[in-house]
Amino acid sequence: MLVTAWNTIQSILSGVWNVIKTVATTIFGGLQSFWQKHGEQITQALVNVWNGIKNVLTIIWNIISTIARIVFNNWGTPSSRRSRASGKSSKQYLALPSM
């Protein structure tokens, strides 16, 4: 009786395993086929998106660094001394607002 029960369990588990294996093989085969057909286009699209993001960030960085360069290069000019004469220290100008 124990052998019969074990054989039944083994048969069921073997069948379940075969179903899992068939499903996995079908899914991964489909993914492989899809990638072979469209992978190059997907890769190129991702490269294009990344280059676009990189270009936007480069433009933003150039704007920020240009503004910073103008501000700090003109820090010692007469017009900047007049604004500093308002009583604010350079630390107050550069300080982040407290939260």
Describe the structure.
This protein is mainly α and 99 residues long. It has helices at 2-73, 78-84, 90-94. Helix content is 85%, strand content 0%. It is elongated.
Structural topology:
Blueprint: H1 2-73, H2 78-84, H3 90-94
Q: Which key terms come to mind for this protein?
A:
99 residues; mainly alpha; elongated
Secondary-structure element pattern, one letter each: HHH
**Termini gap:** 76 Å
Fraction of residues in helix: over 70%
SS class:
mainly alpha
| Average residue-wise pLDDT | 85
Gyration radius (Cα, Å) is 34 Å
What is the number of strand segments?
0
Number of helices: 3
* Biggest beta sheet attributes: none
Give a quick precis of the structure:
The chain has 99 residues and is mainly alpha-helical.
